[in-house]
Design a protein that fits this description.
Elements: E1 7-15, H1 22-38, H2 45-59, E2 78-84, E3 89-96, H3 101-111, E4 116-118, E5 138-143, E6 149-155, E7 176-178, E8 182-188, H4 190-196, H5 198-207, H6 212-227, E9 232-238, E10 243-247, E11 251-257, E12 262-265
Parallel strand pairs: 3-4
Antiparallel strand pairs: 1-5, 1-11, 2-3, 2-6, 5-6, 7-8, 8-9, 9-10, 11-12
């Protein structure tokens, strides 16, 4: 569906939301949308994406930030990435132990010397914070009044994972991707997403003339045909303000805010 510009859309993960507090998830999506949209009045799509994701990292409902699951050693290791589509600038971190991995990813992007840094960063780690039950990855895409397209994703990964395991979330083209055409954030099983690079595939299909809606559905259907259901969800926004989400799981927490309309769903519902 087409929305006014500026516009932001977020997701809180694709998975079996029948086993989770779906109403709480929906309410937190709305709050993240409100928090991200506030940034348009004083910043760009970059700030909107970072602040929306940081809110979801802080709320404890999703598998990100203080809600992150623990690895097989009982430790928290998180991944995040962000990309500015108009300049192709990006930054990412993996296996970090900080409160807000998306802010660390932004630091990497703004520094500009590298794309991906790995390991503990900053002074405040999550060792003393409580982790919740397993939920899923969070992400956001935004388009501001100047035409900047930005995508970001953050996750705590898979519960019980091997120490040092890195999923799709910090990898451009897999967990997130943005160009002048489209911004995409992925969620699902990282080991599958890394084999297909769905965020990049969406951009390729849009560059060939497909609508963002058809591109997202095509990529999700491709993954389903290869690996079955229950493993992926995509959120995407194009440079005209069209927002779409599609998934092959039981549910996907997602929503959109263009300043006049806020929509949020966990199960069926069209953005």
């Amino acid at each position: 569906m087409k929305y006014k510009i500026p516009v932001i859309a977020v997701h809180g993960g694709a998975g079996d939301w029948n086993k989770r507090d779906s109403e709480k998830g929906r309410n937190e999506i709305i709050k993240a949308l409100q928090r991200g949209y506030e940034e348009f009045s004083r910043g760009s799509a970059i700030e909107a994406v970072v602040e929306a994701i940081a809110y979801m990292e802080d709320c404890g409902v999703f598998d990100a930030g203080i809600g992150s699951v623990k690895n097989s050693r009982g430790e928290v290791e998180m991944d995040a990435g962000i990309m500015h589509g108009n300049t192709l600038r990006l930054g990412a971190v993996a296996s970090v132990q900080v409160r807000n991995p998306i802010r660390e990813a932004l630091k990497v992007m703004r520094d500009g010397r590298h794309v991906l840094l790995v390991g503990k960063r900053g002074e405040e780690t999550l060792n003393s914070l409580n982790s919740t039950l397993s939920h899923d990855t969070v992400g956001a895409v935004a388009l501001d009044k100047d035409g900047n397209l930005v995508a970001g994703t953050s996750t705590g990964g898979i519960s019980g994972k091997l120490p040092g395991r890195v999923g799709d979330s910090p990898i451009p083209g897999a967990g997130y991707y943005a160009t002048q055409r489209v911004a995409v954030s992925s969620t699902g099983i990282g080991e599958i997403i890394l084999k297909v690079l769905p965020a990049k595939e969406v951009d390729i299909l849009v560059s060939l003339g497909l609508s963002v809606e058809d591109a997202v559905r095509s990529v999700v259907n491709k993954i389903t045909s290869l690996f079955g259901k229950g493993n992926v969800g995509l959120l995407a926004l194009d440079n005209r303000g069209y927002v779409t989400a599609y998934y092959n799981t039981v549910g996907m927490a997602r929503g959109v805010n263009d300043g006049s309309v806020i929509k949020a769903y966990v199960f069926e519902g069209e953005l």
